[in-house]
Amino acid sequence: MTDAEVTDTQVLDRARCIRWMLIGAFVGIFAPIAGFLGGSTVSADRLVAGLEPLFVWLFVGMMVGGIGVVIGVIGALRWVKGKYHLE
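Request: output the structure for the sequence above.
Response:
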């Protein structure tokens, strides 16, 4: 491998890590908000499996948001581990 190929690979890996961090942050922030909004818009007088729809939607939003945070942390760890931040 030449130095140019290594540099191109490092640039692509760095972009991928930053993309993972941004996607994870956006999903982590907006999924619970979307869950709350979805739970607020469905009819509140019915129960889903004995639970209120607001709780169900917010819980699902929190789970999706947690997955987004995990993706963001993985991207940050890959970025730090790869020493892309030093360039």
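The CA atoms of residues 3 and 9 lie 10 Å apart.
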